[in-house]
Amino acid sequence: GSTYSSKVFRVTFLTLAASLTVPLLGVTVLLDCPIDPQPISLKEPPLLTGVLEPNIKLRKAERLWENQLVGPESIVNIGDVLFTGTADGKIIKIEDGEIQTIARIGHGPCGTREDEPTCGRPLGIRVGPNNTLFVADAYYGLYEVNPGTGETKMLVSTKTLIEGQKLSFVNDLTVTQDGRKIYFTDSSSKWQRRDYLFLIMEGTDDGLLEYDTVTKEVKVLMVGLRFPNGVQLSPAEDFVLVQETTMARIRRYYVSGLMKGGADMFVENMPGLPDNIRLSSSGGYWVAMSAVRPNPGFSLLDFLSEKPWIKRMIFKLLSQETVTKFVPKYSLVVELSETGSYRRSFHDPNGVTVAYVSEAHEHNGYLYLGSFRSPFICRLNLQHV
């Protein structure tokens, strides 16, 4: 009797499984997929040992102005006054602990995913030679902002086609000391900032551009970068470093000297997905990573990289918000030497104190940590780590 009943159970179970799987597959085939992913080949992530050994140093950071601002992506200072751009489209200044909105490039309402293109999203921010702010707004383009009057001046509009391409996701910028040249990234000519996960998963490529403030010309310097993100001029201003987020690496483009116009690899196969890059006081660079590629461990990004069909299935069935929940919250900041070797690393596994870190800005012995989602700025005392 028992073998008969187990047979019945098995047949029933298989029939039930098949009856569920077949329609699910049918639906999956019929559903549209918003992305057209390309296979990406990543090397096995570096082992988190030596200088990269996991620690909890980022947890020593203190949270400042909690719940008084949201998503302070990039941070600069003029003297002791801090400036940042936030997720609700504002450019704010923080002086003596007080937060004040100085400018907006877009207009309200703000708050939902649908609002973002009109609200605007200031990302990279830099200080020019005349103490004006240069701001990269993901939706509107490059702007110059007077921090005293709040007056905004458009330099490069996303409405203008550049060499036949649309700018859809202006991300970060770096400015020469004389303020003449601005190097900036357009992360995608297809996806907007609100769809950054599609961009990471699809692996489409875009470029590094140069804006000349005197001739008002925009030139494309590099193409074929997969999610070009943070940019930083070298201290000698002979090259620009560009973070290639999807590929977990940093490329170098020479802007002067014998190598001018040439490019090479600066750091390959990084332990996480690099976002912004900024100078460190030691002559090297701070790189913020909002996601890590654990080794030993399981890296979802690496697992999916050569499996476009799984990516298609996932995005046919799940929203970007849902997929984001599967990415482990792990914050990592590394300091690179001037030649691109790892000097030190600060971690916050599970993002307990510092989550969704987008930038590490050094000022006066402190590291100010920007975030594209958190409602605060973190500050880490470099003497205490």
From TrEMBL:
Major localization listed first in the record, in broad terms: membrane
Family note: Belongs to the strictosidine synthase family.
Domain Strictosidine synthase conserved region: 171-257
Signal peptide bounds: none
Keyword DNA damage: no
Assigned keywords, A-Z: Glycoprotein, Membrane, Transmembrane, Transmembrane helix
Record Pfam families: SSL_N, Str_synth
GO cellular component: endomembrane system; membrane
Superkingdom, natural source: Eukaryota
Protein known as: Adipocyte plasma membrane-associated protein
GO molecular function ontology, one term from the record: arylesterase activity
Subcellular location(s) of the protein: Membrane
InterPro entries registered for this protein in UniProt: 6-blade_b-propeller_TolB-like, Strictosidine_synth_cons-reg
Bilayer topology: Single-pass membrane protein
Keyword Endoplasmic reticulum: no
